Each structure stands twice: as structure tokens, then as C-alpha cells.
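Entry 14. Structure prediction run on the chain below.
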Amino acid sequence: MGMIGLTNNLIGDRMIKPKLSEMMGLHKVKNFSQLEKETGVSRRTLAKIFNGEGGGIDYETLNALCKRFNCTPGDLLEYVAEDKD
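Output returned:
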């Protein structure tokens, strides 16, 4: 199964940050239990994505979240430059 690198780990001078919190708020999803029931994605996996933990997100999980939120992967993930203060 394919994986997309996800977390607050740097990829060169860039990183991919999850926006699951924003999507849950926008769609009035109250907690991981509700989202688990609606997507089949475990609460543990959702928490890891939410907190930017772990090594990546697999395509099946990303697809389930995109279906639930009627969005594209770019709505769930943000590619940002490292802050070099």
C-alpha cells in the first residue's frame, strides 16, 4: 500500500503538515470516535494524523478522509517551508 510522508518531519527545507483539525472543525466533526464510525479509520490513526505523528498516511486512509470531507488531499495536507528564524 502506498504512503505519503506526513508529520512535522522536515523533507529538505520543507515539511508536510496535517490539517485534520481544520477539516473536523469546518465539518463539525466532534471527536475521533465519530470520524472513526464515518470513515473506518481507527481513532489511533486519526490521532496520529491530527498530531502530526508517525511516518506517513496511507492512500486508503487519505481516500477515506477525502470522501468523508468531500475534499482533495491538498485540503488535508499542507506543504510549508521551514521557518528559519
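Strands lie at 3-5, 10-11, 14-18, 56-58, 77-81.
Filed with the rest of this week's runs.
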